[in-house]
């Protein structure tokens, strides 16, 4: 049985984080966009409001992930370099040196585990919700009515105009 008083490093417990405020804020943005979409669909008929709030939370999540959480929790950096002679630009992505490399730092195991789990889990949840939305659309009675109407029109056309 796990020791609750002395959990092992890497355990999914935000109290073990080296940057707990950054971690909790990162997870709040990640969960906030999902919850605003799910709860907004159930508690309001105003889908435009739900869309706007969800997009704003996703934008805030993107900014926080790329500029704050990625750097503080796991040591990721990124920037754009522009070539003044040709006008072209390219993105540079960099990770902090690991503890065994010169100038490296040890990344907190809990921070790393939370970060990568949340980074990969949220798109998976969005895909699952997209599948649920498609299933709901195709099981909506209006589709039965439209398919029935189409088949009636095809049947009528066959009767009036003959086969072919």
Description:
- Helix content is 63%, strand content 9%.
- With 164 residues, it is mostly helical.
In round numbers, the mean pLDDT is 82
Distance separating the two termini: 73 Å
The stretches of 5 or more residues where confidence is low (pLDDT under 50) are none
What is the succession of H and E elements? HHEEHH
Q: Which strand order spans the largest sheet, edge to edge or round the barrel?
A: 1-2
A few lines on this structure:
This protein is mainly α and 164 residues long. It has four helices and two strands. A two-stranded antiparallel ribbon has the order 1-2.
List key phrases describing it.
164 residues, mainly alpha, two-stranded antiparallel ribbon, 4 helices, elongated
Question: Topology, please?
Answer:
Elements: H1 20-43, H2 47-74, E1 76-82, E2 89-95, H3 109-139, H4 141-161
Antiparallel strand pairs: 1-2
Helix pairs in contact: 1-2, 1-3
């Amino acid at each position: 049985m796990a020791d609750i008083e002395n959990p092992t490093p890497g355990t999914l417990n935000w109290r073990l984080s080296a940057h707990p405020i950054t971690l909790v804020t990162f997870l709040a943005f990640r969960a906030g966009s999902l919850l605003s979409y799910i709860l907004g669909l159930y508690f309001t008929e105003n889908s435009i409001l739900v869309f706007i709030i969800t997009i704003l939370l996703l934008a805030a999540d993107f900014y926080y992930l790329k500029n704050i959480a990625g750097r503080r929790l796991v040591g990721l950096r990124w920037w754009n370099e522009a070539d003044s002679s040709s006008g072209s630009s390219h993105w540079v992505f960099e990770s902090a040196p690991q503890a065994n490399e010169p100038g490296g730092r040890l990344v907190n195991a809990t921070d790393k585990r939370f970060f990568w789990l949340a980074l990969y889990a949220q798109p998976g949840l969005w895909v699952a919700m997209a599948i649920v939305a498609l299933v709901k659309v195709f099981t909506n009675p209006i589709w039965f009515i439209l398919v029935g109407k189409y088949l009636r029109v095809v049947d009528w056309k066959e009767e009036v105009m003959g086969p072919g």
